[in-house]
Design brief:
The protein has eight helices and eleven strands. A four-stranded parallel beta sheet has the order 8-7-6-9, with helices on both faces. The N and C termini lie far apart (about 40 Å).
Length: about 290
C-alpha cells in the first residue's frame, strides 16, 4: 500500500474516494490533489449504481447526478451535454448501435467529463484554471469552464489544428500554442499551477473520468436496461475506455447487468501507444514515435 491521499482537515471542499493507479494508495482527495504523491493518476472508487436515484426529468449527464462524486454547493454546470441518440446502423450483416457523441455541445464526447469537472471546480471555489490538450478536450473544457465562470489558460502544442484553437478562444480561453510537443504543453500547464490556479486536467482528474461513466449508463438505459456484448470506442489517453469500464462495472456490481461488455479501443496508426503495448503484452504504453 502506498502513501495515503493528501488531506487538509481545515478545508471543506468536495472530495472523492480514489485509489492510485500505480502504488495503490487510497483515500479521499479534492480538486487540488490532482495526482498521488508517487506521481501517478488517481482512479475513482465507484460504488454500485443506484437506479432509483436517476433524475428522470432530464436527459443530460445530470440525470445521474446522485451516482456521481460530490460536487459542492453549486448548481450543475451544463450546456446540454449527454442524452445523445443511439442509432441502429446495419453493418456487414450485423446489428450495430452507434452512439452519436458528435452531437455533444462542443462536438466531442469529452463534454461529459468536462461538465462534471467544471462543476467540481466551481463547487470548490476555483476561479482560475490551466489545462493542456491537443484538441478536443481543451475546446470542451473551455466551453464548460466558461459556463461555470472559471478563467482558463490552455496550453497546446504548436501543431494543434487552428479550428480547435479558435473553438477554445471563442469561449474566452487564453490559448498558449508555442509548445514544441504534447509533453511540453503538459509540462508548461503543470508549471502554471499555483495557490490560486487549479489544474483542470482531463487526464488526471477523477471527476472528469467520473463524467465519462455516464456514457455507459446511457447506453444501458437506451438498450432497455441491458448491456451490449461489445463496445468499440476511439482511444487517445484511453479515458473513455476507462469511463465505460467503471460505468458498466458499477451496473454489474449492482446486479443490473450480468457482466461488463467486451471493450475495444481503436487508435490511429500515427499515434497508437496503447494499441502497441497491447499487441506486445506490455504493462505500460509504448511511446509513440513522432511522424
Amino acid at each position: 500500500m502506498g502513501p495515503p491521499a493528501p488531506a487538509d482537515p481545515t478545508v471543506t471542499l468536495p472530495a472523492i474516494a480514489v485509489v492510485c493507479t500505480a502504488c495503490g494508495g487510497a483515500g479521499r482527495v479534492t480538486v487540488r490533489d490532482w495526482r498521488c504523491a508517487c506521481g501517478a493518476a488517481w482512479t475513482p472508487v465507484v460504488p454500485p449504481f443506484d437506479p432509483g436515484a436517476i433524475a428522470h426529468g432530464t436527459r443530460t449527464v445530470w440525470r445521474y447526478a446522485a451516482n456521481l462524486p460530490p460536487l459542492g454547493p453549486v448548481p450543475p454546470v451544463t450546456l446540454g451535454e449527454g442524452g445523445t441518440p443511439l442509432a441502429d446502423v446495419p453493418l456487414a450483416g450485423r446489428r450495430v448501435w452507434a452512439k452519436l457523441e458528435h452531437l455533444q455541445p462542443s462536438g466531442a464526447y469529452k463534454d461529459r467529463g468536462a461538465a462534471v469537472l467544471a462543476a467540481a471546480l466551481a463547487g470548490s471555489g476555483v476561479t482560475d484554471a490551466v489545462e493542456d490538450s491537443s484538441g478536443n478536450a481543451g475546446a470542451s473544457l473551455a466551453a464548460c469552464l466558461a459556463r461555470a465562470g472559471i478563467a482558463l489558460r490552455l496550453f497546446v502544442p504548436a501543431g494543434t489544428p487552428v479550428a480547435k484553437r479558435r473553438q477554445a478562444l471563442a469561449h474566452g480561453a487564453v490559448v498558449v500554442a508555442d509548445a514544441p510537443s504534447r509533453q511540453a504543453a503538459t509540462d508548461r500547464a503543470q508549471a502554471a499551477i499555483g495557490p490560486a490556479t487549479a489544474y483542470a486536467s482531463h487526464v488526471y482528474s477523477p471527476w472528469f473520468l467520473a463524467g465519462q461513466m455516464t456514457l455507459a449508463w446511457e447506453i444501458w438505459e437506451d438498450l432497455g436496461r441491458r448491456a451490449p456484448d461489445h463496445v468499440v470506442v476511439p482511444a487517445g489517453h484511453g479515458l473513455l475506455l476507462l469511463g465505460l469500464y467503471h460505468g458498466f462495472e458499477a451496473l454489474a456490481r449492482a446486479g443490473l447487468v450480468e457482466r461488463v461488455p467486451a471493450l475495444h479501443g481503436a487508435q490511429a496508426d500515427a499515434c497508437a501507444p496503447l494499441a502497441a503495448a497491447f499487441a506486445r503484452g506490455a504493462a505500460a504504453p509504448v511511446p509513440a514515435a513522432p511522424r
